[in-house]
Amino acid sequence: MQDFLQAYSWVNMRFLLNGLWITIVVSVVSIAFSFVIGSILGTIRYMKIKYVSEIVGFIIDLIRNLPLLLIIFFTYFALPKVGIHFNVMISTIVAMTIFESAMLAEIVRSGIKAVPTGQLEGARANGLSFYQALWYILLPQAYKKMIPPIVSQFVSLIKDTSLATIIMLPEVTFRAQTIYAQKPAQIIPMFLMLAILYFILNFTISRVGTYIDRRMAS
Amino acid sequence: MSMIEFKDVEKYYGDFHALHDINLEVEAGETVVLLGPSGSGKSTLIRTINGLESIEGGQLIVNNQDLANPKTDLNRLRKDVGMVFQHFNLYDNKTILENIMIAPRLVLKRDEAENKETAMGLLERVGLTDQANKYPSQLSGGQKQRVAIARSLAMKPKALLFDEPTSALDPEMVNGVLKIMREIAQDSSMTMLVVTHEMGFAKQVADRVIFMADGKILEDAPTAKFFEHPEEERARQFLSQIVH
To answer: Can you give the residue ranges of the ABC transmembrane type-1 domain (chain A) (predicted)?
Structure first.
């Protein structure tokens, strides 16, 4: 019992929370990049530009069908072999961005496709160019519908940052391991704490997402 | 001067021959109604005029622009040729006022104050001033169609295409839309092409009736003549089924 309570000492908690901060920073930066890149790739794939859309589509499908861990290994262990060196944090961000951009691209593409064809036809007949129709009519409607899948994708992203434990990114899961590696009796309290921290973070994000979705719907 | 000119136009959907040897001339200012059974190619024909459907053969000149030529700037053509759809196709993410103002702003670069004045004027004309700040989903079908007409008129087009504008409306909504269309038809400079099943409207407003079946134009006659003495057997059958 004493070990259990000692696990939550001030020193340990501060150590964990600093790790949680790294989790958050890596997630937010990856989310920001992948949102932009995913939107562009998804739109290009939707547009069916000869060759370009097919190549982009192939890359998206390729990445979506690889394990994220393999992409993390690639950016951390393989890229240095060809002379590109990233530190652990940048490696994780690059890997997460590559993977999540592909996931988001598919959400964006199907989101645009889900907008009724009459919207595009109405806009074109009204004199708008394709890009004007896309920017002012299709994308705003598509993003509104995409809020729930995008939010759940971001929640998976946050959970997946724990994979970077393997390349020793000192995020929250890695730090919990560091603590119980010294005191095996603290394994259960550490796992419990991790569960609580991830839950609070992700549940808050889902709730904010639901709130935005409702606001937009009304 | 002719506003729209089809010469031997052909259109296919895969193996399906949707438009067959279409020859048709519509003068500027004319009001023409297209009649025919469903699947006869009326909607396809009207949709080729603003390039929503491509043509596979022949020549189609609209407002002096050649639609058979892939280099023709369709955006430029569509500034002068508006379209009203069966299902309205209003922008769901924009207010009624924005629905009307967006194309003049983006395409014609109309001054914002003037744009708003024009839009409000048009809303008044279609009797929907009080709906300006609502969204399409808050309007009835008839109201949506009146907004769609106002949206087309805001571009100050030379020609307007109506693709079954009242077919998706509840019966009590139809007259409000037809009334506005009648008023537009009275403007002698506006060219109008209307696909419809509203015979009363056709008789009253059309200068000419085009009767289509199986992707072909079977009859092209002045309105009175068409309704009183249709030449084609198919047209007679069609009229006997539809006119009560």
So the answer is: 20-209
